[in-house]
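Structure tokens please, single chain.
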Amino acid sequence: MMILSVLDQSPISSGQTAKDALAQTVQLAKWTERLGYHRFWVAEHHNTNGLAGSSPLLLMTHLASQTSSIRIGSGGVLLPQYSPYKVAEDVQLLENLFPGRIDLGLGRSPGGDALTRLALTDGVRKSLNEFPRQIQALQGHLLQNLPENHPYYGVTAYPKSDTKPEMWQLGINKRGARAAGELGVSFTFGHFISPIGGKEALKHYRQTYVPSDYQQVPHTNVCVFVVCADTEEEAEQHAKTLDDWLLKVEKGKDTKVSSINEVNQRVYSEYEQQKIKKNRSRMIVGSPETVHAKLLRLQNEYNNDEFLIITNIHDFQAKLHSYELISKVFH
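Here you go.
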């Protein structure tokens, strides 16, 4: 059995506003809930004009209030920029509002360039190497079991909640996998960011997993770009807008998703053509039959429990249809 879930970055298509993109994220959450997807995660990005999701915990609150059964989570909160205590308060508030439906995905990424990161921390230079320590502190706040020698022992994260969020660590290499295993949390591998070494990372996570007070057994999922349409040709047309968007993200300026017409008018350099070809290893594109076969092959390679599907294409109706087609071939 394959568990299907969603990651949505609230991408802004050309000709649209952030308000439009966020409304589409809500619509997608409702749609994928009806289709039977297991969880719906939203991301955190800063200082980029093409992604509207800058505050996952705020967006999660709205999404959970607009849905009833699908799990709602972060993919992920960029913990190095924040206080574990404050994040614990936020997710326990969410657990009180929506018991048993909240996922807390945690990322180590700086969230932007060096200046953006300093703006996030208000000038405090925080080390990314503190990430494992911060996760331990966050677990301690959520379980109310900080050790007596901890600097914040005696500080309680309120409101207390009867249920706890699932805790996931996001990563793209063996180092991240090992940290998640040693901390006893679930692990998400970002195939959509970098597919290199994924099989080894997930294997390493399972081998190094240490049961924790927070979680006894290991859990994994893999996030991958997928574009599915009724025909191979149609899927390729929509995937061109994802190809183009990934090039724009690399340049880091305008990161809105261009339309098929805009993309078809562009002339790509030899470097860009090679980059597009290389980026295809991060995605699965095709008809329902093709997508079904390739996802099963990838699951066999990774031995993962679940896939998070991300579909950053320009045409929102085609995006909705893509999730529908994927759901039908697996249910």
